[in-house]
Each structure stands twice: as structure tokens, then as C-alpha cells.
């Protein structure tokens, strides 16, 4: 299997991967509003992200985004398992990530 490096696209601040991957009727593409200053999440610098789009609009509840294409595919799987219901999506995602043990804030 040959791994191909994605071409980059300038979003006005930084270069982001210029990819569009179809998965289960949804399109995974680079999040274009990531800035030149990385976000810090759990001590990690986040410079790139991926969104899920359907028919030209964000598909996941709460404008959820992923750190990788693999994570975006997992979010799509969870969304479909939730019957495309937002509340059920967040419950299943919380359970998948091991957060169900915490009380809501």
C-alpha cells in the first residue's frame, strides 16, 4: 500500500491538508479555521483538525470536529449508531471516551 502525502491549501493563516474523503455518505475534510497559534488540549499542540460535512453543511451535532481522519470516521460511526440524533450521539460519544463515570458540570 502506497501512502500519499496530501497537498496543502492556504487558509489565509496556515497551510492545511487539501483532502476530501467520502465515508458512509459523509465527506471528511480539513477544518479551515485553524489559526497560526495552535490550541493546547491536554498538553498537545493542535494545528489541524477535520470536519464532517453532508450536502455542504456540517453534519455532526455541535459542530464537532476531529483530530484525525480516523477519529472523524469514528465520529461518523457513532453518529449513525445514534440514529443521527444529537443527544444520543453525545451520550454514545461520552461512553466511548470513558466519560460516563463523571457527573455533568
Molecular structure report:
This protein has two helices and nine strands; from the N terminus they run βββββββββαα. It has 105 residues and is of the alpha+beta class. The strands form three sheets. Strands 3, 4, 7, 8 and 9 form a five-stranded antiparallel β-sheet that branches. A two-stranded antiparallel sheet has the order 1-2. It has a two-stranded antiparallel ribbon with strand order 5-6. Strand 3 (20-23) and strand 4 (26-30) form a beta hairpin. Helix 1 (69-81) packs across helix 2. The N and C termini lie far apart (46 Å).
Write the layout of secondary structure elements.
Layout: E1 8-10, E2 15-17, E3 20-23, E4 26-30, E5 39-41, E6 44-46, E7 50-54, E8 57-58, E9 65-66, H1 69-81, H2 86-96
Antiparallel strand pairs: 1-2, 3-4, 4-7, 5-6, 7-8, 7-9
Amino acid at each position: 500500500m502506497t501512502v500519499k502525502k496530501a497537498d496543502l491549501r492556504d487558509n489565509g493563516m496556515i497551510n492545511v491538508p487539501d483532502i476530501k474523503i467520502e465515508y458512509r455518505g459523509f465527506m471528511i475534510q480539513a477544518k479551515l479555521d485553524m489559526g497560526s497559534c495552535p490550541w493546547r488540549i491536554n498538553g498537545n499542540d493542535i494545528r489541524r483538525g477535520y470536519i464532517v460535512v453532508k450536502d455542504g453543511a456540517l453534519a455532526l451535532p455541535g459542530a464537532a470536529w476531529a483530530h484525525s481522519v480516523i477519529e472523524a470516521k469514528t465520529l461518523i460511526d457513532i453518529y449513525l449508531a445514534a440514529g443521527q440524533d444529537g443527544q444520543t450521539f453525545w451520550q454514545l460519544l461520552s461512553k466511548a471516551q470513558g466519560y460516563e463515570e463523571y457527573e455533568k458540570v
